[in-house]
Amino acid sequence: MPEPWLRGPLPGIPALLQPAGHALVMAQEEVELALSELTEEQLWLRPQGVTSVGFHVAHLAGSTDRLFTYARGEVLSEAQRTILEREATVDERRPSKDELLGVWRETVREALRLLGATPESTLTEPRLVGRAGLPSTVLGLLFHGAEHASRHTGQIVTTAKLVRGLR
After folding, report:
1. Contact 138, 11 (CB under 8 A)
2. pTM, two decimal places
């Protein structure tokens, strides 16, 4: 099957946001495939001190949710701040592969819903990021959410290959 961006437009998503939608769909598919080939133990391995696949998946879901929250013009909820704090200890807690994938799937579903609900006329509206209120725009946040997901997906795929090759 071709990559998502070669399958045609995603239904309900404005034309200017199709690339972000396609990147998120591709990230979801690649994460699903990479994790399908790992055991629960391999999910948390850190060969040569690299970040575990499990951490990347947890961070991927949390960061995508946070970036899209800022794109909506909202501040992080208490639950989102708690999730952010808990990311630092995810390697100790070791949620299951199914749990991590479930959260990632729901994050992508919600992100695609937000893309579909975003009028193109709002893309250049200013948005503030984080407690420091750093400047961005709706489009800047949606694009960064998609490229950040792509970056971590690449790390997940590479690390998964590495841990599968360990004896």
Report:
1. no
2. 0.93
